[in-house]
Each structure stands twice: as C-alpha cells, then as structure tokens.
Amino acid sequence: MQRDKQQQILEDKKDLNRFGYAQELLRDMGGFSNFAISFSIISILTGAVSLYGHGLTYGGPGMMGFGWTIVALFVLLIAASMAELASAIPTAGALYHWAAILANKRWGWYTAWINLIGQIGIVAGIDYSFALFADPLLAGTFGYTSTETTTLVLFGITLLLHGVFNHIGIRLVARLNDFSAWYHIGVVVILVGSLAFFSRHELQPLDYLFQVGQTFSDKPYALAFLIGLLQAQWTFTGYDASAHTIEETINPRVRAAWGIFSSVAFSFIFGFVMLAFVTLSIKDAAAASGAENAFIYVISEALGGTFGTAVLWLVTFAMWFCGLSSVTSFSRMLYAFSRDKGIPWSRHWAQISVRYRTPAKAIWLVVILSFALALFDYILKRINPDTSYTTLAFLTAVSVVGLYVAYGIPLYLKLRAEAKGLFRPEHYGPWNLGTWSKPINVISLIWIVFISIVMVIPPNQNAGFALIGMFLLLLVMDLAYYRRHFPGPQAALDTSEEEIKRQESRFEK
C-alpha cells in the first residue's frame, strides 16, 4: 500500500513538472482531506447560520425551503464545470491557470486578482461570522458588553490563530480539516436531534418551510426574495479550495475534482435538513427577524438557556474550523499567483518555509488583507453611523461577486476555446461531463451573471461600489505595469528540467 502511494506521488510530481512547476508543497492530502477542506469552507454552520437573519428578514421561511434549493441546484452545475477543469489542469493556480491556458496571460491575471478579491472577502466574512457569534456568548459569560469594537478585536485574534496554525504545517491543518468535516456533520445531527426531540414548543407544519409572500423588509416580496438569496449563495462559496490544494493532493485529477463537486452536494443535503428544523422551530418569525441575531434567538427560544447556549457554542466552533480552512485555500492561491510574479513583491509571497513546507509569508499576507477589509468597513461606520447595511452583508457580498466572477471566467473561456477547436476531448481529464459539458457550462454562466447583479443591489450597493473601486484599481495596475511585465503561467512551461530539479532539491531530506 505504501509503495502504491509513493508511486502515485511520483506520477503526480511528473504530471506537475509537465506543466513547468516544481513539487515544492508537501503532497500528503488524501481524497477525504481534499473534500474536507472545501466542505469546511462551504460550512453550512457558517454561511447558512450567520446570514440566517438576512434570509429570514427578506424571504421569510420560504427562503429556507425554496431559496436554499434553487441556489444549491445551480451551484452544483457550476461545481461540476469547475471539477472538469481541475481534472484537466491540476495546478495550485486553479482558476487563474485555467484562464491563462484557455486564453492568454492577461485573462489569467485578471482572473487571479478577481479571485483574490473574493478570497479576501470570504476569509474576512467567515472569521467575522465567528466573532459575531462568539463575542455575545463570551460577553454573557464574562459580563462585558458586546459591541462592534469588541467583535473586531475578537475577529483579529481569530485571524492570528488561523495564521499560526496554517504556518505550522499542512499535516496539522489537513488533520484538523478532516476532523472539521466530521465535526460539521456531528453538530448538524446534534442540532437537528435537539430541535426535533427537545424543543420547548411544537414544531411548525412542514409546509411552513415553503411559505412564500412574507417579508419583514420594506421591499416588494419578489425583490426581497432575490436579496435574501445572499444567505445561500454565500454559503456555497470556497469549494475551489480543492483545486487550490491540488498540488498537495495525491491523485488530484480524480480526487480534487470529486472534492469540488461532492463538497457542494453534501452541503446541500445537510444544509437543507438543518435549515428545515431550525425554521420549523420558529415560534414568532417577526420577533426572530427583529432580533439582533435571529439564529441565536430561535435556538434560545426553542432549547432554553444552558442547553441552547451549549448548542450555539458547538455551532460557533464550526465557524472557527471553517475560517482555518479558508486561510489555507487563500494562501495557496496567493502563493501560486506570486510564483508567477503576478502581484507586487511576488518573491516574498512565493517563498516556501523549508522547515514547514508551507507558503508562510503568503499566509500572513492573507491575515493582514482580511483584517484590513473589515477594518475599512469599521472606519466607514464610524464616519457614517447611520448606515443600514451590516458588516457581514458587506463582506459576504464582496466575496460572492469576486469569487463567482472568477469562477465564471474560465468557464466562458473554455466554451470559447472549444468553439475555436483549441480545447478538444483529448484535453479533458479523467473526471469530465462528456456531452453534457457545454449545456452545463452555459447554464452555469447565466446563473453567475444573474447572481452577481443581485448581490449588489440596494441595500447592499456599498459592496458594489467597493468592487467597482477594486476593479478600477486592477485596470490601472494592468495598464501601468503588468500588461508589459507579467510573464504569465505560460512562462513556467519553458522552465528547464534542471531548474525544476534545483527547486525541488531544496526540500529533499
């Protein structure tokens, strides 16, 4: 068995070398670990829970039955399309490399930067969600008042811890990711079982889950329902992590592809069951919607003080694991892009710790950028305290649009390359959609365009303004420097065999 594993690792290294890259990262992740990192980042106990009040306020209980299902079905198509490309082009650059290889280096450069914007938003959003839940729970225990300032401080401490754990090594993080996947499933089972058997009042009838027409916002229901989709759409982000860790995965053409698709499929199923029981436990939807934290309100009302608090702590720790996985994914994407000299001071972010075999400097840059985004919003609110949007809605909308636009670019370029005869059946990997590939890609693109518009309509227009500002900055950077000086991943294809061996020799014992 060990000999087979070593043989597969050797084949994977040769495969990576054919793309022009040295095997610098430690290839030690199995199929479950690869699935677990995406499943943990999707984290139904983070997205669906932290934005539960957002979904309930705008779409009412029907958001949990119809909204969750509609979004999940479209995301499954997007995940299948991305899994197909991961199987064909198994490098840690993922979306960025796919775009560059299917078109050219400038497409790749923009894809990488847009993905980077989305990754900043998702890391910040996840760890801020943890702080939003943990801070009031800690305040109740230690007797202080939870404020936006205390939440920001706890958010910063959480980021620091995730940076330390990721710096130490992929083996530890991989084991924690494995545990996180089982932990998420276990907590969902505990939460559902508790609500089913120990709720202090009767559950609502099943059709309550699909009740539409009720909104607690000032918007017409159709528009409010669309705004409420942010809850489900943000939950289903980050599953590209299986592709970003592809150079650390054994037999990645198969395992990483399944990791992308299966993480979405299992999140859909477990998330639906969890949301169903939470929503059926609502006694007063208007009171829940008006509460400072709708999810905490519903669980506390249904399960009572001590028991409810214990369950809420279990949910909150799941968010911590989600943030840990997200820092892993983002740092690998940043490392891969820096390796190709795509960002300022690239040589620093592309450095690998010889001791830990992790992109140490990239990890800490992730921590700094994620904190800076939340700090920016915090300062804006100090300047204009009458703003109606929440910090979490701002962070999550930025991440949804940034990530999904980055997801969509290589899908569009693949369709264009196929139409030109540049991407043919022999270019597919072992995991592919066959004759269903083109229609699934087209439907995926339509949904990405639609949802990207929905995510920045009022009251979340500030996220749209922030994204426009970021995209304009990218345009200036490109025209001023990178259009002429960015070598692109194709440059790595010219890397000599001797140079690849020299890079790999630094990590040989």
TrEMBL record:
How is this protein annotated for GO cellular component? membrane
Tell me where the transmembrane regions lie.
35-53, 65-86, 107-131, 151-174, 181-201, 221-239, 260-282, 294-323, 362-380, 392-413, 440-457, 463-482
The membrane topology of this protein is:
Multi-pass membrane protein
Q: Output the InterPro entries linked to this UniProt entry.
A: AA/rel_permease1
- Keyword set for this entry? Membrane, Transmembrane, Transmembrane helix, Transport
Where in or outside the cell it occurs: the entry states:
Membrane
Q: Which Gene3D superfamilies match?
A: Amino acid/polyamine transporter I
Q: Which Pfam families match?
A: AA_permease_2
Q: What is its main location?
A: membrane
GO function terms (MF aspect): transmembrane transporter activity
Q: What is this protein called?
A: Amino acid transporter
Task: State the organism of origin.
Answer: Brevibacillus aydinogluensis
